[in-house]
Amino acid sequence: MRCVIVTGMSGAGKSTALKMLEDMGYFCVDNLPVPLIPKMAELLSVPGTEINKAALGVDIRSGQNFYELEKILKELDRSGTRFEILYLESSDDVLIKRYKETRRFHPLSGKDGRVEEGIKEERKRLKFLRERADYLIDSSHMLTRELRAELSKIFVENKEYKNLYISVLSFGFKYGIPADADLVFDVRFLPNPYYIDELRPKSGNDKEVREYVMDNDKARMFLAKLTDMVEFLIPNYVQEGKTQLVIGIGCTGGKHRSVTLANELYEALSKNDNYGIRIEHRDIGKDAITKAR
Fold first, then answer.
1. Is 110 labeled as ligand-binding?
2. Is the dihedral of CA 86, 276, 241, 250 positive or negative?
3. What pLDDT, in 10s, does the model give residues 205-245?
4. Is 10 labelled as part of a ligand binding site?
5. Residue 292 has what pLDDT?
6. Residue 55 labelled as part of a binding site
7. Which member of 28, 42, 139, 186 lies 3.0 to 4.6 Å from 22 by CB, making a disulfide possible if both were Cys?
8. Which residue numbers delimit the RapZ-like N-terminal domain (predicted)?
């Protein structure tokens, strides 16, 4: 019997995760009253039951009963009941944006209705769950299909999960450095395809541009050193407890060199399945006419 408690920040994707787990064959119950968790665990552990995989959604909507959860989890530990905790979170900026887009109130926003204060209070109340979570997923930059892939890796394929998700992000300096980037690298020292008439309308996703950018020792050496450094940093970030790593690679317009190097780094890091990874080209479609450097 596999029992998963799905929890985390409001707006981080718990309901979506439960629906995905249901599609994966889990018996799912959302917003289960906290006092009923031991009873549910007892029923699920009865020999011969048809249910062998269950996911229980628990969050601050439980009201005052939520304060009993820490005590109940300790009791389950003492009784030998096996369970796992999946904790979903997102950055404050992303959560605020999601609430504004849906025009919903945060459950803890209080009389003044300020989402920021609700998020702050929720993080405080959920701290004990985050600290003991078996799986910590930051959905800040995840697409729905990427979240599904991560859940499938953990709960279907039973692969070891390192709680780190990497985003490789190409961008153009003339559009600003990504505010959420943890590491930023400037590749404007490489040959610029902008000055080649037949390459200017293409992007780093095109074979011709990739070959032009990578056909020199500086580009290949930079990629090798960058890959080596990131691979050194990853296990140290995991040990520190970091759950989200955003690597920004920028050139002038975010269309040629940065896209090429971001793709190359993504391919190199994708060979390791100990962490999730995605790629995004933020400025590849922006065609503002500015003088290239």
1. no
2. negative
3. 999 999 999 999 999 999 999 999 999 999 888 887 788 89
4. yes
5. 44
6. no
7. 28
8. 1-158
> Of 257 and 49, which is predicted with more confidence?
257
CA distance 62 to 84: 19
Query: Binding site annotation covers 276?
Result: no
The token duo for 179 is 């505010």
Angle at Cα 193 formed by Cα 203 and Cα 179, nearest 5°? 60
Torsion of CA 270, 243, 57, 51, to 10 degrees: 40
Residue 114 or 206, more confident: 206
Of 124, 87, 110, 91, the C-alpha closest to 8 is 87
62 is in an annotated binding site: yes
Q: Is 14 annotated as a binding residue?
A: yes
The residue-averaged pLDDT of 274-291 equals: 78
Is 35 a residue whose pLDDT tops 90? no
**CATH 1.10.10.10 applies to domain 2-155:** no
**CATH 3.40.50.300 region(s) of the chain?**
2-155
